[in-house]
Amino acid sequence: MLKKLFKWLAGLFILFIAVWSALLFIPKTNDKAYRVKVEKNQGIASVSRKLADDGVIYSRPVLLGTAYLLGVHNRLHTGAYRLPKKVSAWQVLQRLRGGRPDSVTVRIVEGMRFSQMRDIINGTEDIAHETRGWSNEKLLQTIDPNALSSHPEGLFFPDSYEIDAGSSDLQIYKTAYRTMQRHLQAAWDERQSGLPYKNPYELLIMASLIEKETAHEADRRHVAAVFVNRLAIGMRLQTDPTVIYGMGNAYKGRIRKADLRRDTPYNTYTRAGLTPTPIALPGKAALEAAAHPSSAKYLYFVSKMDDTGLSQFSHTLEEHNAAVRKYILKR
């Protein structure tokens, strides 16, 4: 009886190994070549799920189990990998464990500072860091000797950029710069009349202020209206993100009254008009808001401090003070 059971289990085990090997080594023919993207800190679990959902492999458990057996489940390199039209799960694993993607994706988020963009690019693996030791001035001069400003802040468009593995990081900067110039020119050409901007660079500065004040579509054009309306009557912009930018490394997560009174070129509580440069990398929505503020005559706004993150807008100081009491002081 035990001998029969042993034979049965052995046969079952052999069958299991045969099926596992078939699902692992037999290539699956797909409609076309496939590109799988591995995001930062992404493991084999989510990558294999995507491959299975798209029908690239026969069995996700087989690929996943083999990856764990080989110890490569959490050692994937960020980037895009090209898989041939006919590919097995084993070939997929070999491609992923090789650690040399065909391309690398770098994501720059709206509202980041240029210094943060440089940190991200400098820390990206599998690209050539040609510019790592360059000053901001050298980088900008290399890209465009006739740039709108000698200060790079705001001149690079936040987006996801994909380049070939091993390519120079300068390629990312050049693409981001050209992309911003294109979006900025489009916003400038399509701007509504009567705006207080002398040139596209001032529109870019305004867009950066809007970007740092709100990420909500419902608020952007109203925030733009507040700033435009203030400029029109000679009222200071008085926006905290400019103070923070002017504080530089002295900012530790909190603004004190002394910080609001301490004069810097970026302190819009102590100085009238726009800041001398942008204070962040604005996205397309912020550029469009700067070019098309709402027609509302708002002069003030304050965060509602709730889950929505939206703001309360006011026409008068009296209305604004009431909103501050309602949304800020009550907390």
UniProtKB/TrEMBL annotation:
Keyword Cell inner membrane: yes
Keyword Transmembrane attached: yes
InterPro entries: MLTG-like
Gene3D superfamilies tied to this protein: Classic Zinc Finger, Endolytic murein transglycosylase
Reactions it catalyzes: a peptidoglycan chain = a peptidoglycan chain with N-acetyl-1,6-anhydromuramyl-[peptide] at the reducing end + a peptidoglycan chain with N-acetylglucosamine at the non-reducing end
Family membership noted in the UniProt record: Belongs to the transglycosylase MltG family.
Protein name (record): Endolytic murein transglycosylase
Species this protein is from: Neisseria animaloris
